[in-house]
Amino acid sequence: MLPGVGAKGAQRMVYRLLARDRDAGIRLASLLEACMREVGECENCRTYCETKRCPICTDVRRDTSALCVVEGPSDLLAIERSAGYKGRYFVLHGHLSPLDRVGPEDLAIPKMLDDINEREVREVILATSSTAEGEATAWYIARALINAPHEVRVSRIAQGIPLGGELEYTDDGTISHALMGRTEMRS
Amino acid sequence: MLPGVGAKGAQRMVYRLLARDRDAGIRLASLLEACMREVGECENCRTYCETKRCPICTDVRRDTSALCVVEGPSDLLAIERSAGYKGRYFVLHGHLSPLDRVGPEDLAIPKMLDDINEREVREVILATSSTAEGEATAWYIARALINAPHEVRVSRIAQGIPLGGELEYTDDGTISHALMGRTEMRS
To answer: How many angstroms separate the CA atoms of B116 and A121, rounded?
Structure first.
């Protein structure tokens, strides 16, 4: 059920806790429950947080004219770790996938486009994964932004990231370079 | 902290639960807590169980004249899965390790020797891992059984298990063969 955990791995974890530290197991259980109940989504960028707005959206030092669009909260953290970006984010929580019936509304893309127009965001960096679905999602957003009432520069992070790879598992240096080498998108 | 789980893996698991099934996360937390609080050790064989005695020790169809000594509850389960053994078990919860100050008393070996004498166990199968510590533990128990008041056949599971390997991760067929090919131990 959980990624990377099979029956033997799960058994090994529980036995380790039973043998060495039951209190840690109880703390883990209580943290997990609190996490499931209390973690919500930032009303602005949709990343996971326990407040109405996340620390990045409320940070006045962040550049509000740039918006980086990612597929998931873990991609946001990966970019933050690379420390090469000082703008804001928008988390899609997925990518366009017609076969799974995931359309623009499921990813809150219309809300994001409204926000971009209202706040007059000047640059949108599309940092979806370099998979087929990630590319399609980036192109969809780029096309939608052609009709924006003000000028928006739309860029795609560079293909320094290995083709078919997922952003979450890319090393920080590669992410940093991919952000710097971003190329303007024209459709 | 948990075996095989790093920071990225843990984050990936929590994000999967947050995104797809928070109820499952809450159920997992509650099961984990119940497990930490309620799972004890069988007063007879010391494996994990939620009752005073485990299902194997209370199963009248098991051969009480044979005792299989293992390092941990997961080794017991691995042997049960191989379905080649119908006797009982004793779980040491570790192996002799003088450097870590783990002596025979920490593994309840004196209690086990008393049980073997009281219940007139006729065969003891030493199924500790084929690591240096597992071998030393097996030899220690074999030597201690020389002085048993009744005759005890002491055997060691065959070295069909890869040298240096841990029992828990051996495939069922190899475990089955190792049990069948067990050789008598003389010290």
So the answer is: 78
